[in-house]
Every structure is written in structure tokens, then in C-alpha cells.
Amino acid sequence: MKQVPIGVSARHIHLCKDHINLLFGAGYELKVLKNLSQPGQYAAEETVAVIGPKGRFDKVRILGPARGKSQLEVSRTDAFGLGLNPPVRESGNIADTPGIKVVGPAGEVDLAEGVIVAARHIHFHTDDAARWGIADKQRLTVRVNGERPLIFEDVVARISDQFALDMHIDTDEANAAGVKTGDHAELIL
Prior knowledge:
This protein has four helices and 15 strands. By secondary structure, it is of the alpha/beta class. Strands 2, 3, 4, 5, 6, 7, 8, 9 and 10 form a nine-stranded mixed β-sheet that branches. Strands 1-14-11-13-12-15 form a six-stranded mixed barrel. A hairpin with a 6-residue loop joins strand 3 and strand 4. Pfam families: PTAC (PF06130).
């Protein structure tokens, strides 16, 4: 049985360096609150507010380090609350997505695009992928056996020698299956 740890991803934002400077002040460096499952990735101490056409969320956690482009990742439920209809996309694929206002302690930024519902995916280290015969971008089927067992299809395989094995689903998906971070999923293929 091919077991994969589950990581539940709540709403969060990735910011580029220019936007960090606008929101927190020139030369600002994010502070690490806790390291995440992927090497070099962390939840920052800092949060921002995001404001959509119909609602806002305060205290949205920033994930670091800085990225090339800013993007907000939300669940479908979060999107309804903001008054947006973002597409399901892989992280980084933000072309033609809705924008949002981001407010920090030193300023605000109107993102022209960048709001997505992140596609469920599994990070594979290259060794794990090779051992299990998984190709990058392959679409997988995964069983989760929480309080309400489900089978997830179209789970994107993402492979890198910089990754650690971890399945990322959002809060809506986790709640539907009754699973939490640290539970395990079974790769069906």
C-alpha cells in the first residue's frame, strides 16, 4: 500500500518581494513562525487582510519565502465569502484569475490577478516518484479514509528533488472527508 501524508492547506498568501516592501515597509524581512512540510517553506509570523467585492478576511497568513508573483490561495467556501469565483489552478498559474486588495500595516496592494483555488496535489521527492513509477504532472487517484472516506481524482503529481512527500488539499476537501494534517491517504494511481 502506497501511503502519503496529508497536509491541509488553509487560506494563505504568497507575496513577491516588491509587495512585501509595499505592505510592511522597504527592506522588510518576513519572520519564520513555523517551518512547513516542504523544505525551505515556512508560515510567517506576519498576516495581511484581503478584501474582495463582498467580504474580507483579516489575518491571512503569509507563506514564505518571497515568490516571483503574489497569489492568494483560498477554498471555494472562502471565495464565496469574498465574492469571487477563482478557477482551480496549480500554484503559480495565475494568468486570467481574479484580483484582490491586500492590506498590510504599511500600505496596500491591488492585485490585478492572483486568486486561485489550489488544485489538490502531491509533492513527490524524485526518489519517491521513481520508486512508485509516478511522472511529473500525472493525474492520480487517491483514497482518504477519514470519518467520511472519499476518493479524490485528478490529484496532480508534482516532482522535484527539493520536495518532501506530502498531499496538499484545502479545508473544504479535508472537511468533506473528515481528515486533518498528519493523516494518511492511499495512492490508488
